[in-house]
Design a protein that fits this description.
The complex is a heterodimer of chains A (about 425) and B (about 270). Chain A has about 425 residues and is of the alpha/beta class. Helices cover about 55% and strands about 15% of the residues of chain A. Chain A has 3 domains: about 1-155, Beta Polymerase, domain 2 (2-Layer Sandwich); about 160-305, Rossmann fold, CATH 3.40.50.720; about 345-415. Chain A starts with a strand and ends in an 8-residue tail after the last helix. Classes of the chains: A alpha/beta (about 425), B mainly alpha (about 270).
Chain lengths: ~425, ~270
């Protein structure tokens, strides 16, 4: 019984790799079902967002599970098996729990503190619940992860971070333009933070939404979501002549918009003001274009600087969040080890012995002047009763393999054994 | 009577200037109301003062430097109020009231005695020509204030250090468009002022154009604003460049206005 995580995120994989491994739309259900059917996997959840693809499992043998999950990924997505040997992170035990908690709390996000990831995690969990691919371990893990995320959000100021970045972007747009509802907005690329900022901006009301993406299908998908119009990636520069606000996050390794290209765009748009937010890391837009008249280019750091010049303060909040997570990992691991059969057997025996002792004491009090022989006989009978009664559950626990986790939980419930610290 | 009214108007404008400068440092809803009330009282008294002089002179009172500067200030305040009531530009008073006050102060130091108007100049052109010229230049004064606000706001946004006034200054686009609107309002007035001036010169001196310093300088000003409009329409010179040009344009007007008076004597002797 082991929490097991296989996955990749924006930190270790470029967007084209992430796209290949993504479980989009109907592929998610199919993938989840097949993932759960792997012989080494007892419980399964798949989390697939623009910035990460992660498979959570309850496995017995981590080495075999890791191989079998890689085989599954290569088979399902039709990619070379060798390419998966590097470029994935694999965690088990406390590291896996830590990773899941950090993801849920948005400490692992591209923009730390952005709130979308928790919703995405909840959705992944709900799908797993409806497909019945989870059991006692992952259910507990997910519930705990959600409560940890909430704790981090309420006890630290980390969540304010991302929200205020989107907020700052909108505030700036309002100080550049008179009326946003007359402005054309383009989302270039995708990503948690870019989409968050785009949503924020669109909800304040813009005239038109354009969505461009290196993969046109993705642009179409996103434009449906934002009620906009998809634009081919090759044509985005052309469209910039009529676009007033751009949020860019493409994951491209180089600049996709150079200064000379922007100069031409500005001529085409008769030098009308344009506000560009480059959220990409590495940056996608030549920082030099900020020198052009009427072009206002902000990257994530600039926005962050606007929101909060105090880096130290943010660092402290992140440390606080990590501390909360460490605490919660401890309680989770204690709960998990309590699920193990040996401690349960011990606890069951202890409980039975305790009952025996208490009842014997009560009885012997009631019969004054009882002889040593009689006393021994009564004690003997009590011991025999206890042993006979706890023998079947004990041997069931020892033998159980497939449904052990459930059995442990059931027995603990039936006998009122509390392994989990409240 | 006229003198007291002028001093009173000057005092009100002074008070409005002081309060509007403090507004730059501390935000409050009451201050902007106080500024507008003070400016309105100054404007009311100022209006009466001008009417008073009009009645006693028998023509529009802009025939000496004191009167001309005072009337110019009056036009600026008039357009300021129109702008304020139509668009509610926050902090505009902080950038305009000081200009008004400085002009009024210089007016107060210039010789005030009314001189009899030369009979040659006594014609209906006097009213038409001067009112057009002063309203046009007043619009440029407002464009100067708005342009300055633009530069301040643009500096914040461009340098990414959103300083104290960022929150309260209007958006760049608003300021830019207002600047443009003021210039498109002032430019035809200036054009008409030059044309009517030429007509008036013809009827007074028998020649349309005499290259006296004021004529030359109004032509220079006219060209500056013509360039601003032309560059904006053709090459899209807006934003910072337009703001800078409108500042340069107004400084030219001011330099010409006082410079000519100090250095030379031309046909526009009284101005």
């Amino acid at each position: 019984m082991n929490v097991f995580v296989v996955g990749l995120n924006h930190k270790i994989a470029d967007v084209d790799v992430r796209e290949k491994l993504a479980f989009n739309g109907p592929k998610l259900e199919e993938g989840l079902t097949r993932f759960k059917e792997l012989p080494e996997v007892e419980e399964a959840i798949i989390l697939s967002t623009c910035n990460r693809v992660e498979l959570y499992a309850n496995v017995r043998d981590t080495v075999r599970a890791s191989e079998s999950i890689k085989d599954f990924l290569s088979d399902f997505h039709n990619i070379k098996r060798e390419s998966l040997d590097s470029g994935l992170y694999i965690y088990d035990g406390s590291n896996a729990v830590k990773h899941v908690f950090r993801v849920a709390s948005s400490l692992d996000s591209m923009v730390v503190g952005e709130p979308q990831i928790l919703g995405q995690l909840k959705a992944a969990f709900e799908l797993a619940l409806s497909k019945k691919t989870t059991g006692i371990l992952l259910n507990k893990l997910m519930k705990k992860a959600i409560s940890v995320a909430k704790r981090v959000r309420t006890e630290t100021r980390i969540a304010e971070n991302a929200v205020s970045i989107s907020f700052a972007a909108v505030e700036l747009a309002k100080k550049i333009f008179t009326d946003l509802s007359k402005k054309v907005f383009m989302l270039l690329g995708a990503g948690e933070m870019a989409e968050l900022a785009a949503k924020h901006l669109i909800s304040t009301g813009v005239k038109e939404v354009l969505v461009s993406n290196r993969t046109f299908e993705r642009a179409c998908e996103l434009s449906k979501e934002f009620n906009g119009r998809p634009v081919k990636f090759e044509e985005f520069i052309q469209e910039m002549a009529r676009t007033d606000i751009v949020i860019c996050s493409t994951g491209a390794p180089t600049y996709i918009l150079s200064k000379s290209q922007m100069q031409k765009v500005m001529r085409d748009r008769k030098q009308r003001q344009v506000f560009i937010i480059d959220i990409s890391v590495p940056r996608n837009i030549d920082p030099g274009i900020n020198d052009l008249d009427n072009v206002y280019l902000y990257n994530v750091d600039d926005l962050q600087g606007v929101v909060d010049a105090n880096v130290f303060e943010r660092q402290k909040e992140a440390e606080k969040a990590e501390k909360i997570i460490e605490e919660e990992i401890d309680t989770f691991l204690k709960w998990q080890s309590s699920l193990d059969s040996v401690p349960t057997i011990v606890a069951l025996r202890e409980k039975a012995e305790e009952i025996k002792r208490e009842e014997l004491e009560k009885l012997l009090h009631k019969i004054p002047g009882i002889g040593e022989k009689e006393k021994e006989a009564i004690e003997y009978m009590a011991t025999a009763l206890v042993n006979k009664l706890i023998h079947p559950p004990t041997s069931a626990l020892k033998e159980a393999s497939e449904d052990k986790d459930a059995l442990v939980a059931t027995i603990k419930r039936l006998y009122g054994i509390n392994g989990e610290e409240k | 009577m006229g003198v007291i009214l002028f001093e009173l108007a000057l005092t009100f404008y002074f008070a409005a200037t002081i309060v509007s400068i403090t507004e730059l440092f501390k935000e409050s809803k009451i201050t902007s109301k106080i500024i507008l009330s003070l400016a309105a009282m100054g404007f009311a008294v100022h209006t009466v003062n001008i009417i008073f002089r009009y009645v006693s002179a028998g023509h529009i009172p802009i025939t000496n430097p004191h009167e001309a500067t005072s009337f110019f200030s009056w036009c600026i305040v008039l357009i300021f109020f129109i702008l304020q009531f139509r668009y509610k530009v926050s902090l505009l008073s902080s950038f305009i009231m000081p200009v008004v006050f400085v002009l009024m102060l210089s007016s107060s130091m210039l010789p005030r005695e009314m001189r009899p108007l030369s009979p040659v100049l006594h014609s209906y052109w006097l009213g038409i020509h001067t009112v057009l010229a002063f309203l046009g230049n007043a619009a440029f004064a407002l464009a100067f204030g708005i342009g300055t606000m633009y530069l301040v706001q643009e500096h914040y946004v461009k340098s990414k250090h959103l300083g104290g006034l960022f929150e309260r200054l209007p958006s760049l686009q608003t300021l830019d468009e207002m600047n443009y609107r003021l210039i498109t309002f002032g430019f035809p007035l200036l054009t008409l002022a030059i044309i009517t001036g030429a007509l008036w010169a013809e009827s007074a001196w028998g020649s349309y154009w005499n290259w006296d310093p004021r004529e030359t300088w109004s032509l220079v000003t006219w060209f500056i604003y013509a360039i601003i409009l032309h560059a904006r329409l053709i090459a899209g010179w807006r934003g910072k460049r337009a703001a800078l040009l409108s500042i340069i344009g107004f400084l030219t007007i001011i330099l010409a206005f006082f410079g000519i008076k100090l250095l030379q004597k031309g046909l526009h002797v009284f101005l």
